[in-house]
Amino acid sequence: MNMLSTNQETKMTDQLTTRETAETATIKMIVFAVGAQEYCIPILSVREIRGFEKTTTLPFAPAYVCGAINLRGIILTVIDLAAYLNITAELENSRRVVIIVESRDGVVYGLLVDRVIDLADVNTGDVQPTSDEGACLHGLVLVDNRMIGILKLDTVLKHLVGDTTKE
Amino acid sequence: MVLVVENESGSRAALIVDEILGQTQVVIKSMEKNYRHIFGVSAATILGDGSVALILDVSALIAAALSQTENKAALGLSELVS
Lengths: 167, 82
Prior knowledge:
The structure holds 2 protein chains of 2 kinds.
Chain A: H1 2-17, E1 26-34, E2 37-42, E3 46-51, E4 65-71, E5 74-80, H2 81-84, E6 97-102, E7 108-113, E8 115-123, E9 128-129, E10 137-143, E11 146-151, H3 153-161
Parallel strand pairs in A: 2-11, 5-7
Antiparallel strand pairs in A: 1-2, 1-8, 3-6, 4-5, 6-7, 9-10, 10-11
Chain B: E1 2-6, E2 12-16, E3 41-46, E4 52-56, H1 58-81
Antiparallel strand pairs in B: 1-2, 3-4
């Protein structure tokens, strides 16, 4: 079951990146807010959503790494998306949540966001691509007349684990 | 508070810490699995209350401190010679 969902995710991300192909697909996205801006990621990459709790600070970590948490025996790091994307987070927000994401290589990490909004079906044909190849966004898409950024999890992961290729 | 550590080769070093909380047996969990290697940290563990604690790589810390002092000594010597 887990394998199946990972395969589906792979397929979908491929479709997101290779937009030259005429066929378009609909991807179910989870929409969340960081500050005033909304972003989304494919729901199949999400493992669970939980409240933000105390993290263990890691030495020499980039400013956007909040620290490590214990998720039922797994140690994973939480990324403060507001700091990562260099945007101002909501002040005095006690409802901040961590979206636990699992990459295709099985790396589990958390994304700290201000609030989870809803789910949305995004058609790959409607995505307005951003020009930069190494950018942290796949592109922008209109959902209910709101401009939503599609977060590129591959780039986030690459920044998190460092440039050294994992064995 | 000062914590004196000794490695296999018998060399000793002192670590200055804020507080010694106690001793415990832990299960070692890799940090590289979901993150990357951290300098001075060999692994992590989960404590009884569920919080994450980092396991220090003492030999790496000592080696780094020693090489730094050696560098400084060498630098001082070269300044004397020139």
